[in-house]
Amino acid sequence: MEHIGRYSFREYLKVVEGFHGSQAPGLILGGIMVDYALSRIEPGILFDSICETAACLPDAIQLLTPCTIGNGWLKVIDLGLFALSLYDKHRGEGLRVFVDPAKLRDWNEISDWLYKLKSKKEQDKDRLLAQMEQAGRSVLSLRPIKIKPQYLGRTGKGAIADCPQCGEPYPIRDGALCLACQGKSPYMGK
């Protein structure tokens, strides 16, 4: 793997470390996946992305595409699968990239990492990253997809009002009270 996006493999490792805090294998393989999808999507297409895991892979999408959680072009639908899709934001047609188990036979470190057969302490991280660099796209598969209509476009917040209980602004589509006051807050006491 010579390049991941506009970066050499070694440059990408440094970018990942600066962004994520470490050279996370999921972000490295994720970069290879994003690069593969980008190489196959039609030039000039305005695209959105779906990431099928919340771990590491969304960071690769945000580093290498204009799709971010903040701008709404990246949706994380945590299916527990290490896969992503890039698709035409209007038509919903695109490509899904995933790690193909049938292609992992010759890449034991990648397989052990993906299937959690070794703890982080037991993993040989240098060997794992070397295998990812050597394997590149060869451990991936790509297939055309069509996005369900309910996943196309952005959903706005709608009208905003002050919550009658806590006084903070919230989308009134959430009900008579903000979601926190409805008991959905992760915090104790709210």
Mean pLDDT: 94
In the CATH scheme, the class of the largest domain would be Alpha Beta
Radius of gyration: 19 Å
Order of secondary-structure elements: EEHHEHEEEHHEEEH
The third-level CATH topology of the largest domain is 60s Ribosomal Protein L30, Chain: A
Instruction: Label the structural class.
Output: alpha+beta
Shape: globular
Number of helices: 6
CATH architecture of the largest domain: 2-Layer Sandwich
> Main β-sheet: number of strands, strand sense, barrel status?
5 strands, mixed
Report the helical percentage. 25-40%
Account of the protein in words:
This protein is α+β, with helices and mostly antiparallel strands. The chain has 2 domains: 3-151, 2-Layer Sandwich (60s Ribosomal Protein L30, Chain: A); 157-190, 2-Layer Sandwich (Wheat Germ Agglutinin (Isolectin 2), domain 1), CATH 3.30.60. It has helices spanning 9-20, 25-40, 57-64, 108-114, 125-135, 180-184, and strands at residues 3-4, 7-8, 47-51, 74-76, 83-88, 93-99, 140-146, 160-162, 169-171. The strands form 3 sheets. The chain has a 5-stranded mixed β-sheet with strand order 4-3-5-6-7, with helices on one face. The protein has a two-stranded antiparallel ribbon with strand order 1-2. Helix 2 crosses helix 3. The longest helix has 16 residues, at 25-40.
